[in-house]
Design goal:
It is built from two helices and 27 strands. The strands form six sheets. It has a six-stranded antiparallel sheet with strand order 3-2-24-23-22-21, with helices on one face. The chain has a five-stranded mixed sheet with strand order 1-16-15-14-13. The chain is globular and about 55 Å long. With about 425 residues, it is mainly beta.
């Protein structure tokens, strides 16, 4: 879902980006589209909340990353006119070793009408690719070069989805009528056997309402063994007032769920990928106000940065929470990883340096270290929309990138096929 989105978008907004927001703690207290759903048949097993709260990371944050992300590649951020040309063209700008060059890409605009934002992407059987928009699903059978679209079930609108090996589409949605928990609050789980045209509810995730005030669903991940991971942010822990990103697991195609397993405090958004070594790597938006115990170099506004975390046990526990970006407002990023361990993270840049837009960072060792280079992916007049990606069978990265061309205008979605240019040995 998208930070900084308006009410008519298939996204979760970030009121902390709005000066009129009543919240002053710097956290993302966003709400998703309102939903009212009937009672469920299948409930998850909820772990004792106190055990979850005591688990997790130490209070002190790791040192700042050695790579400063304000001006990667030893090249100044391109001027607005240059970025506008990039947006109209079929190439990325690539800064490395003091040089700015062009990397050709294949780029097509996705079908849809004004207000049909979105961008969640999932692979299906036989090389098919699906992209979720507000009321539509877009489908490609040739690796993202050509697309068709059709109406998706209203029950699935706004939901995160994945496609199982047999073509079954699993979607998670949330229901909330007033932005607060009730005893009936659930994350609803849906199954579709016709590519999302119709759907039936198969289960739900029961949430620990006694310790949290509300929730937002922030993602669904499908592992190679069929395990599903649903990320849910729970707001307002009674004992600490922290907002916590939790993870629920299903090993039976979404019917039953176990959890919560704590991923991190103060985190939301992002995505999870499996690395060739077998670990999971999560990109996370880490956001909170500044504290007296923070390091002197901490931004006076606190944190609104992109972080990473790892799991070696398929999401049961997480470790090595660490910052990836050093610029306040570079906070929403989604990863993709090729078979040789080359990883890219396309992230937004909201407040500069340079104009708004998306940029991609690169790691050549599965996210352990990051190269001093950057790809300029998009130019946007208003909001820098998050960009979700999948990796195709031939290691081509297919990124779904959103951009607008006028202030508070509708978002256009583009499907972009590309590969990072490895440095010469």
């Amino acid at each position: 879902m998208y930070a900084g989105s308006s009410a008519n978008r298939n996204t979760v907004s970030d009121p902390s980006d709005n000066p009129s927001s009543p919240r002053t703690d710097g956290m993302d207290h966003s709400d998703a589209p309102k939903r009212t759903q009937p009672s469920i048949r299948s409930w998850t097993v909820v772990a004792p909340a106190i055990a979850v709260l005591l688990a997790g990371y130490p209070a002190a944050l790791p040192a700042s990353p050695p790579l400063k992300t304000d001006r990667l590649g030893n090249v100044p951020v391109p001027a607005v006119d240059v970025l506008k040309q990039l947006q109209a063209g079929k190439y990325f700008l690539h800064a490395r070793a003091g040089r700015l060059g062009r990397v050709p890409v294949e780029k097509v605009k996705l079908p849809g009408v004004k207000g049909e934002e979105g961008g969640l992407v999932a692979l299906g059987p036989g090389g098919s690719v699906y992209v979720g928009r507000k009321t539509l699903l877009c489908k490609s059978t040739d690796g993202g070069r050509h697309w068709t679209s059709y109406q998706r079930s209203a029950d699935l609108s706004g939901g995160f989805f994945k496609v199982l090996r047999d073509g079954t589409m699993i979607t998670v949605t949330q229901d909330r009528t007033d932005g607060r928990f009730s005893q009936a609050s659930r994350v609803h789980v849906w199954k579709s056997s016709d590519e999302g045209k119709t759907a039936s509810k198969i289960g739900s995730i029961k949430l620990p309402t006694e310790r949290f005030t509300r929730y937002t669903v922030f993602g669904l991940t499908l592992l190679s063994d069929g395990t599903l991971l649903c990320r849910v942010k729970l707001y307002g822990v009674v004992s600490s007032r922290r907002d916590t990103l939790m993870l629920y697991r299903s090993t039976d195609r979404g019917r039953n769920w176990q959890g919560p397993h704590k991923l991190a405090d103060w985190c939301s958004q992002g995505d999870i990928v499996a690395t060739p070594s077998g670990n999971l790597l999560a990109t996370l938006r880490y956001q909170r106000g500044r504290r007296a115990a923070d390091r002197p170099e901490t931004d006076r506004r606190g944190f609104k940065h992109l972080f990473l975390a790892e799991s070696a046990d398929k999401g049961l526990s997480w470790r090595n929470l660490r910052p990836l970006t050093t610029v306040f407002g570079q906070c929403y990023g989604c990863p993709a990883i090729q078979s040789d361990g080359t990883m890219v993270v396309i992230h937004d840049t909201r407040y500069g340096p340079g104009h708004r837009g998306s940029r991609a960072m690169v790691s050549y060792d599965q996210g352990r270290t990051w190269a001093d280079e950057v790809y300029y992916v998009s130019y946007t007049e208003d909001r820098a929309e998050p960009s979700f990606s999948v990796v195709l069978a031939d290691d081509t990265i297919l990124s779904i990138v959103g951009a607008d061309t006028k202030w508070k205008g509708p978002i256009d979605l583009f499907a972009i096929r590309w590969k990072p240019a490895r440095p010469a040995k």
